[in-house]
Amino acid sequence: MTQPSDTREALFGAPYVGLLPAGPRQAISDVPGVFVGHATLADGPLQTGVTVVCPTPSPSGGGAAASLAASVPDTRWDPFRSKIPAATAVINGFGKSVGLMQIDELGVIEAPVALTNTFSVSHVVLGQLREAISANPEIGRGGPSLNPTVLECNDGYLNDMQALAVTEAHYAQARASAQADFAQGAVGAGRGMSSFGLKGGIGSASRVVETAGATFTVGVLVLSNFGRPSQLTIAGRHVGPVLDERLAQPAQRAAPERGSIIMLVATDAPLDARQLRRVATRTGAGLARTGSVYGHGSGDVALAFTTGYTVPHDAMGRVAPVALVPDPLLDPIFQATADATEQAILHALFAAESVLGRDGHVRRALADVLPDWATL
């Protein structure tokens, strides 16, 4: 549980959306127990990386002070032994992510959530497997297997995906670097991503809500790689037509939507998997506000989890009940999810720098192309 915040200011020069206050970091790590790490490859035609979101049990007592005090994950936490309740929502299922089916069936995640490019999913899966086996040698040898959780977007416009540059070591690097304060924009898995014909990448945001007699935080992190230039809408202002003219890319105007977005939602509100699926679905509201129409070739996938309680791997017999937020009181959490998703996408765009990638391909930063967006 977290304390109220009066923060109503966005980051990176982006506009603030909605009326709910944000957490102190204006990021997914405002949710107690959530940490983020990156490994970035930025070398000529290699513009890619790995981002790892580590959800750990909310610190005892919760509160904003606890969230700020815990700047790195507790290394004693084993996600395989102490699972995090979770659910997914596939808005448009054009993608190659790993682990979603079992999450939907069992309602938990048992590994950190990793993001990378489409061709690097298998290497990151291997990294997760080796990490889990090291901590739990019985996995796959008499004990149950692990459900890796790796989600992806295609960064092939800027990055040479065929080089298969991401390795298990990059996953380990991102995992080891996880902390509460992390970079946004063209970093980690977001290094080679594109949005609306501009540079996309990693974006994050948070909102604080009061419901069910308590105060909770909702945080979102996106891997933004979607949208055609003409669609872009910033805080309700449709700037897409001007962006389309300034980019002057006729071939792109005629091209179908081929991008994707991964949206991760964290909260410390005690919710079960069914409720978390409802929360994950609300990312679509925030996504649509930025101009997305969930195009045919766009893989739009959301995963929501709570750090409010854990599910023990070795539970035998009855498990102590959890006092969940009643369904009729979920609307503030739904609102926070939609607002934080929209804000996170804007943060990804406003934080990103211009990047030169493979074969001379360039994605320019929004700040370079639309510095006057607010007056258009």
UniProtKB/TrEMBL annotation:
UniProt keyword ATP-binding present: no
Keywords: Aminopeptidase, Hydrolase, Protease
Sequence intervals crossing the membrane: none
Record's keyword annotation contains Hydrolase: yes
Record-linked Pfam families: Peptidase_S58 (PF03576)
PANTHER family xrefs: BLR5678 PROTEIN, D-AMINOPEPTIDASE
Family: Belongs to the peptidase S58 family.
Protein's name in the database: Beta-peptidyl aminopeptidase BapA
